[in-house]
């Protein structure tokens, strides 16, 4: 893989795939920081799940492939992934970022790096106030723990109906923490101020709002605000982030997510909650 102009100072090269929510974190950050157009080169790397689909069913099984990698065969697309692992990121995971010859891995690390590297450009994603900054870092730690992203995937992948309730409750505990840590005065995590905390949750909310109800009968944000009073504020948050250009620009839509995450639902497939 040849990263064009990756050694030009300030030029960002981002290896990503907007089918991956972690990659979308970095892509949303680029848009919010106004790192667009000639400032960034996007290189789309096939996800492991996409390669599996292609190997089993050919190009017709993954219609997006012809648009993303025009003129490429299944073998060509597989080689793109192998070259990426050899030359850029040995794990094969996305996103990866290069700037001025330096390489940065992991979505949340990349997002904060871009804020630090371009502090006066686009949306400021990390507050100057130390208390607010600590709030964002606290939230990031919780998001990487067992009650948020892990619980989202756990709920979708669970094959034992008797565990549905416990896993859902774990997820709701994490989302409640998001609300409890958040500031008053606006819909975002820091109130009126959009921040990295919002960026990191946005792509997760975008896909799991569709996949969890479809495959497990679980509302991502419960509509029963009597039983879950914290959900009202999270609904306000969701309404606000859905209006942002960065959300709209990288959302794949319900049909895509339902199809793309069928494999995560496993043999249980589409199921009723607890059954």
UniProtKB/TrEMBL annotation:
Q: Which Pfam families is this protein grouped with?
A: GST_N_2
Q: Which InterPro entries match?
A: Glutathione-S-Trfase_C_sf, Glutathione_S-Trfase, Glutathione_S-Trfase_N, GST_Omega/HSP26, Thioredoxin-like_sf
Name a GO CC annotation attached to this entry.
cytoplasm
What Gene3D superfamilies does the entry give? 1.20.1050.10, Glutaredoxin
Every GST N-terminal domain range: 10-122
Give the source's domain of life in one word.
Answer: Eukaryota
Q: List, alphabetically, the PANTHER family matched.
A: GLUTATHIONE S-TRANSFERASE OMEGA, PTHR43968
Q: Per its record, how is this protein called by name?
A: GST N-terminal domain-containing protein
Which species does the entry assign this protein to?
Octactis speculum
